[in-house]
Amino acid sequence: MSAPSHLARDLAAIVGERHVREARAERVTYAMDGLPTHRRVPDLVVLPGTREELIAVVRLLAAHDVPFVPRGAGTGLSGGALADEGTVLLVLTRLNRILRVDHDNRLAVVEPGVVNAKLGAAARPHGLQYAPDPSSQSACTIGGNVAENAGGPHCLKYGVTANHVLALELLLADGSLVDVGSPGGESWGPDLVGLFVGSEGTFGIATRITVRLTPLPRAVRTLLADFNSLRTAGEAVSAIIAAGIVPAALEMMDQSCIRAVEDSVYAAGYPRDAAAILLAEIDGRNVDAVVAETEMVTDLLRKSGARSVRSAASEAERERLWQGRKKAFGAMGRLSRDLVVQDAVVPRSALPQVLETICAIAQRYELVVSNVFHAGDGNLHPNISFDATDPALKERVETASAEIMATCIAAGGTITGEHGVGIDKLRYMPLIFDAESLGAMHAVRKVFDPDERVNPGKVVPVHACREWASAKQLLARAS
Amino acid sequence: MTILEKVTALLGEGAVLEPSTDRVPRIAPGSPDAVALLLGTAHQEGWRVRIEGAGTWLQSDAPADLALTTRRLDRVPAIEPPDLTATAEAGIGLDQLRQQLADRGAWLAIDPPGLAGRTLGSVVATATAGPLRHGFGPIKDHLLGVTFVTGDGRMVQSGGRVMKNVAGYDLTRLQAGGFGAFGVIVLVHLRLRTLPRADVTYVLEGAREDLTQVGEDIAAAGLTPAALELVSPALARRERWVLAVRLAGSPALVAADETGLGAASGGGRFASLRAEEAHGFWMRLAEGFSVRPVTFRIGGVPAASDELLDLLQHQLGDEWISASPAAGAIRWTGEASIDRLQRLRRTLAGLEVPLTLERAPWALRGAVGHFGAYREGVGPLVTGLRRTFDPGGALVVATEGS
Q1: Hey, which residues does A90 pair with through a beta bridge?
Q2: Who among B81, B160, B301 is closest to A105 (CB)?
Q3: N or C end of chain A: smaller count of CB under 10 Å?
Q4: Which residue in B has a C-alpha nearest to residue A380's C-alpha?
């Protein structure tokens, strides 16, 4: 089914002709998000430029009973912002105004299309920061971060997006507006802000977002430690956490990932022969305390078997170390034309064992798996590089992916820590939720959107029973 | 067959406790499955059920056919110090849980108002954070997941046992502070910290305005207290207002903050409390909020804290009050009429400040509601969510008042 042309005309009357994309060549550019393994071409693409235009567009779509998908910068990694045939894609990147930065109350009010890094830059002159820092922060939008409950390396200490959203103005699928939360963070009734954050655009669109800002740290120390084995690096993570130290970030990369970065323009000076590196950052408002905790972390890393521990000697070196980490996904593009990005989370103490099992799975299926992840949170990103034009290889990748996921679940973990379910992980949902829990989630979605017109077919599998059977078999095999 | 006979046949005599003072049968299911069985039956039979924990916080006086108490759900299936997580049933007393955690070197960094034996489920369902919210955030930030039973007996899981989790909708946050309107919490997965190796409390007495300034100085100096609480004289049992500062964490961090505290307060006027004095101070503060009949909280922006304290003093009196100015959170307890509370809620709504009624006799909370003055569009969503999780209206909760 294609969107009727009169709809395109009516939409153009609201947003202007140049902001409605009808030609296939234009629509194809929106067929994927940051995950190249899913592809859907929307029927129409609309880019409203103001809140009022957005409201008018959604009300028009409601009047015509047309489903739609909100999309930010398209950097998501779960296929969550892809639109099927018969569905209109609403791209929100033109709604990019920072409406207010309130120094006294440490908050900011923004439109959904504001880029994460730009909010950070706007907060900095006030001595403040917006702490959630997904690796795509130079491109991803706050609206997308809210939809996905985005994380990032520094969420270990500062928390994920949900910990930083105070209030939202919501535009529901029927075109009605709802204000939830308050600038002070207390809710008007149940915590609908908390419920909305991470709902992956299936409840509606956040048209105005009030976020908490936090004071910039006055001291920062960044350590690079390298190890002879992944297991040893994983044990070092456990030692640091168990010591009661909460670093600002604690990130791990394996050898495959290290080499991909070092072979790229993002080369950071990571030791190429290391089996794993840990990037640990300690920050705070008190220099003496940061220095003391850095010494403790250095000591723990050495005692845990680090070959060497090096502290960034300058801000430039610190930035280079972080660039390597944040651009690792891009660097992995060198390894092969396609990449499966996973996002499982395991209990931190299970990291060494799970990492070994992932290696074994990769060897068994003869696949290149690169690990770059938020070790302090136990949030793994095993990435499989492959060529999707080879059907046999693609099948092996899918089977291995499922086994990796099942391994993480069997270790007490979950299927996604920050990328969201989207369409990519729908099949895994019955592995961690029973039918009643999935049914409850589906019912909640219908409270916000009774006709299920906004971002249809995402997050909660509709045919849970059928998927449940195959998922159970996978889990049984892994355990 | 009476309700009591049916319940006895369903769950056994062990689940039937002494009735409440209002003669409502009190049932204590021994497992989450038993809670599901009871609520499923209540839904079918059309019984109205009120939810209780240990009975030390919210008054046990809601009109109902039976009272469901979680107090026999007191097991702690898992404490994982290496992962800094724990799983506990909702009916365990916080004091017991704290002890079990401390024995393993772990700490749940919350200090809610009420008596020490208040249940974990009560704290989560009412989202009542105490002074530690300043350093460690609201109750929801300590939750990794919950399992709850809906008003018609369905068992629903949300979240999990790991640090980050975005699989599915965050029903955990809906339950935290839902006052049981969306189901009975039976199991809670918690995020822990290691027991702080240094934990000290300093207090400073003075005029409220002066102490507010000191509090701002402390924030500006970059200190990172676990708690920074302004307490009224009556509540603190002192002559004047008290600014209490709790520093907890690594010895290095606490030592650095102690140095900074002296400088920020203009020459070390703070008095250090011995460990047992500090324990007593914070415990009395928490218990003070369960003594008087009405307790509520409000949440404004930090810059409005002074203005809000003035407003409360003007409209209700300020004898029993505690505020975390930097977090914008204020808790009040005392006696108040329906009219006064409704008027106050309306006034605060005009300032974009929600008022959440935490505890009050049924006659008052039934009329005022835990929540109210919803922004446009919120009411239908809350009603829809209530219908989703309690389609028969079995759970007696004064969500919005009459």
Answers
A1: A46, A70
A2: B301
A3: N
A4: B164
Q: Quick one: which of A148, A176, A168, A174 has its CA closest to A160?
A: A148
| Chosen from A191, A214, A421, A433 to mutate, greatest number of chain B CBs within 10 A | A191
Nearest Cα residue to B382 out of B400, B369, B365, B394: B400
Place of tokens 């049924």: B362
B129-188 pLDDT, tens digit per residue, is 999 999 999 999 999 999 999 999 999 999 999 999 999 999 999 999 999 999 999 999
CA distance A348 to A341: 20
Element (H, E) at A358: helix A351-364
Inter-chain touch B299–A182, beta carbons under 8 Å: yes
Instruction: Yes or no: say if A131 and A106 are a contact pair by the CB < 8 Å rule.
Output: no
Under-70 pLDDT residues of chain A: 1-4, 463-479
The type of residue at B288 is G
Residues of A with Cβ-Cβ distance to B134 under 8 angstroms: none
pLDDT value of position A466: 42
Q: Do B168 and A460 touch (CB under 8 A)?
A: yes
Which of A187, A199, A380 to substitute to test the interface with B, most B CBs within 10 Å? Answer: A187
Cβ contact, residue pair A179, B382, below 8 Å: no
Write the residue in B300, B371, B374 that is nearest to A184 by C-beta.
B300
Tell me which of B35, B140, B157, B169 to substitute to probe the interface with A (most A C-beta atoms closer than 10 Å).
B169
Q: Do B166 and A159 touch (CB under 8 A)?
A: no
Of A186, A418, A425, the CB nearest to B299: A186
